Amino acid sequence: MDCVSLELVASLPGHEDRVWSVAWSPRGDLLASCSGDKTVRIWTRRFGATGPPAAITGNSDVNHIQSTGSTNASGAQQWYCCAILDQCHSRTIRNIAWSPNGRALATASFDATVAIWELSGGVWEQVAELEGHENEVKCVAWNPDGRLIATCGRDRSVWIWESLPGREFECVDVKQGHTQDVKAVRWHPGGELLVSASYDDTIKLWNYDGDEWVCSQTLGGCGHTSTVWDVSWAPDGRRLASCSDDLTIKLWESGAAGAGAGAEAGRSSAVSGDSGGHDGGDGGGGLVPSRPDLRCATTLSGYHQRTIFSLDWGPTGLIASGDGDDCICVFGQGDPELARVALRASEEEEKQVPVATTTTTVSWDDGAERPVVHQQQQGKVELKDQDMGGGAGDITDVDPDGGVRVKCPGSDAEVSALGGGGKERLNGLSLGQEGQSWGLWTRMVGAHDADVNCVRWNPAHPRLLASCSDDKLVKLWRLR
Amino acid sequence: MSELINPNPIVHERKSTVRIKSGQRTEASAAEGREPIDALEIFDHIRDINDPEHPYTLEQLNVVSEEQIEVDDGRGRVSVQFTPTVAHCSMATLIGLSLRVKLMRSLPPRFKIDIKLSPGSHSSEAAVNKQLADKERVAAALENPNLLSMVNRCLTPPH
Q1: In the prediction, which pLDDT does A1 show?
Q2: Residue A449: which of B109, B135, B137 has the nearest Cβ?
Q3: What's the CATH code, domain B34-155?
Q4: Could you report the predicted ipTM of this complex, rounded to two decimals?
Q5: Are A152 and A204 in contact (CB under 8 A)?
Q6: Count of CB contacts below 8 A, A vs B?
Q7: Which family, according to UniProt (chain A) (predicted)?
Q8: In angstroms, what separates the C-alpha of B31 from chain A's closest C-alpha?
Q9: Domain coordinates of chain B in residue numbers?
Q10: What residues in B contact A227, CB-CB < 8 Å?
Q11: For position A255, what pLDDT does the model report?
């Protein structure tokens, strides 16, 4: 028996065609999914006794989804679709990305365009369109400060767009380095490095040299032997993971970082649980953007039987992957037995949370880069990660200007942790042990009834995983 | 119309195939009360697909045959190899796409379908195979109205 396992939290029907991608909002309270049915759905949760869901969007019907949610301190949680974004793209929507402040969504479509959406007066509205790709756009990614957007597609190019005042977006560079379709782009958490993965079997790293974006390294040669479908940075930005049609996952480390590993051992372990935040001073985490010098340090093979379409390196240090064999795998570093103890402990903490002691209000003031968090504490509450438990806030009111107030029945670590400056480390649930060898920690065979197209860890509830599939479903899993 | 890629293809007879009742019903499928899907059944789905450039079926041109089909009903796997009439056939991708679409429409979704050129049968074998195996490219191709109508023409039964 596995030491850790994935437990189904919810199975969310609604899409009428295959679901290509899922993306968690930065605060982890909303999940966006996009599909061959040309729509985006936004999912959120409510709790048993709170009555009808608050309408945060008036765009579409509010679907009441029967979920298989588990019961906890604050009652049964239910996930439901709170918005449908449609009538924008004329073809499949392949990928979606949230802006770092959680106020905007970008959608990449086979119709050659990228749309930008904003929540305004409770309704998601398309506010801009990025046109330029010749044909199918396959991926879109916002850089960590929200100033840049990267897109890529079948025309073999990577585009960098700059966000200007007045919701204008200007293309600042078009990179033609790949010889075939570009499947994915992802920004380094430090923001100065972009990675792209391609049908040409290579991965390219791009950095800004003061004048234009240049390819600082190509990971080919001894790399993947078929299409690279997805890439993911470690939360601390020190390593990169990639997955491929060649049925392997590869982990890449900076040669420079590897050489100093011994001296940095203490620092490494301190960093391993960092939940995606990066301190501005050392954004590269041992990586020099102009000379990333990444080398393949580990190859995980023999675990997937068909194309690996997606992978995600979560805040706990675990890597989840999904494949064309309907299967989800979770890989970890070190001893899974230790991880199970840590998981148990965090579950116990969750049960002992005092109820109704903290009221947190989050508002997005116009002009503020990030949500402003107001927290009132009555009595002494230790702030801990609540996962899906008492800390989850219900959105109870919507300001006409688009601000959303969140009232939280329990303590509310994740809202303040992720909504705030990102400096707090309140959800530092670290499950992997850096420096140890990687292994398969759990495999969910038949996670879906068809290909698993995307897996993504929740940034605020680090044990929660979302997946989506050709079976038209979005599923939520809890690591136990 | 442009010049044909293979002006004089060899045309074969449509075989009359008789299903031999095999006693190999697996436990699982017997329990579900259904016959397992076998190579002949797959062949029946694809043998009458029209060749994109000749007024013959894929069976008549020997592009597909029962021997080039592998089925694992229990695991839900179907693998079909096809052999273009000439090694530089530019229609290979379209034929492969038609095979995939026909089987996608005919088989229960639990089946994973692999379509490949038979080894050594095409000058760009690896490239064509890679393209046919890329679900994203296949999905995009099938949203292209021109390509979809070409596929549908191949799949239209003879009148």
Answers
A1: 52
A2: B109
A3: 3.30.300.130
A4: 0.88
A5: no
A6: 39
A7: Belongs to the WD repeat CIA1 family.
A8: 20
A9: 34-155
A10: 130, 134
A11: 80
- In tens, the pLDDT along A354-366 reads 443 333 333 434 4
* Rounded distance between C-alpha atoms, residue B136 and residue B140, angstroms: 6
pLDDT in tens, A408-457: 333 333 333 333 333 333 457 888 888 899 999 999 999 999 999 999 99
- Does the beta-carbon distance from A92 to B139 stay under 8 Å? yes
All residues at 6 or more sequence positions from A345 whose CB lies less than 8 Å from its CB, including other chains = none
* Single-letter residue type at A228: V
Tens of pLDDT, residue by residue over A217-246, are 999 988 999 999 999 999 999 999 999 999
- Please check whether residue A442 is in contact with residue A329, taking contact to mean a CB–CB distance below 8 angstroms: yes
Would the pLDDT of A200 be above 50? Answer: yes
How does pLDDT run across A158-183, given as a tens digit for each residue? 999 999 999 999 999 999 999 999 99
Question: What span, in angstroms and rounded, lies between the C-alpha atoms of A319 and A130?
Answer: 32
How many angstroms separate the CA of residue A135 from the nearest CA in chain B? 10
Distance in angstroms (rounded) separating the CA atoms of residues B102 and B152: 9
Q: Among residues A240, A217, A242, A248, which one has the least CA distance to residue A229? A: A242
Pairwise CA distance, residues B26 & A146, whole Å: 56
Rounded to the nearest 5°, which phi and psi values hold at A270? -70, -30
DSSP state of A238: S
